[in-house]
Amino acid sequence: MTAWLLEVGGGGGGGATDPVASVLLALAVILVASKVGGDAAMRLGQPAVLGELGAGMLLGNLGLVGFHRLEGIRVNPHVNMLAELGVVLLLFEVGLASTVREMAKVGVSATLVALLGVIAPLLLGWGVSAALLPSASIYTHVFIGSALTATSVGITARVLRDLKKSEAPEGRIILGAAVIDDVLGLVVLAAVAGIIGAANSGGSISFLEIGIIVGKAGGFLVTAVLLGGFLTPRLFRVAFRLRGSGLLIVSALVICFLFSYAASEAGLAPIVGAFAAGLVLEPVHYQRLAGDQGDFQLEDLLAPVTAFLVPIFFVLMGLRVDLSGFGHLDIVALALALTAAAILGKQACALGVGKGIDRLSVGIGMIPRGEVGLIFANIGLGIRVAGTPILDRSTFSAIVIMVILTTVVTPPALRWSLSRGARRERRIRFQPG
Fold first, then answer.
1. Which domains does the chain have, with CATH numbers?
2. Contacts (Cβ under 8 Å, ≥6 apart) of 157
3. 258-282 pLDDT, tens per residue?
């Protein structure tokens, strides 16, 4: 075992030439780390994802104390492929948690909240990057700004559910706006990727072309939702005629992967297609097949798959964080400035809230970046302009720290804010006369 550990995640170990052996050991290390880290985070009242990130950061920086045997995991292409698949399924799961009908119900207020919650952080993040990374390209500034746009609906939803505020006006606006935030964030990501693609082709890009890219991303989502809503019930009816087990989960994964492939062919990130696939798979479409398969919900069937693949992504993101960079004040300043921009940018959401709604709670509820911010950062590591990555490991690390801080601060801040509103209502109710 000691000999194997010398090459964990590498091309082989202990004289073995089979690359599968090193991947198997790397996965064992990652999964154990994810569960131990997740347990530690949950005992501290934090979401498990923070523990998975922290476990990855610990493993990835053991070299600082002279232990280098796990460094091969970070660059192993097979582990990275599994992590990318985990991201696709994660966005598919996020899409499943929402429906087109629910998005249509949230109204003008939630849409305005989401728009402000994308524009303000984008501009603030761009400004922070331009001020603190003056030698970086404009593409880096734009990408860092875009990484601050999306809200993690899962983290806020958990707090609202714990406080029994999901159905309160503030809760409905936060959850609706967070979903729209994710859609707008994916559109922003597609636009930024298109701009960088044009730069790599040696050309410039006009505002009209940027508009076309944004329209293309939005058009894909609309087309995917409309076409998917028409085709998916028919596909499930075909699957119902087949014999065998696992037909519901396999059918759903086929739809997810086809949508992801279509998004990639359209020049967008595969996660855009995965999210769209989740949106169109409403329970009414597969109810008959689900009943035939034992009356399971699709989310329940998907859970074991995501429980395996999604933690790989989060631990790998932690592995890629270079803590040695935080010995430099400029990286610390960047991480703190991005965190401040991320928090302040979402407070602009309050301007979109109508009268009688707790604006502070809405702004706080939109703060956490969570998994979506990590997905943006990970994509940035793989995008290059003229052969140079738009994000280096230090900048990537600063974004990950921003994600961690915004995720940690939200639950206690939202609990305080919502309880503050409840106390104020009680005082008003029991005032004499």
1. 1-75 (no CATH), 86-421 (1.20.1530.20)
2. 97, 166, 175, 178
3. 988 988 887 777 887 888 888 888 7
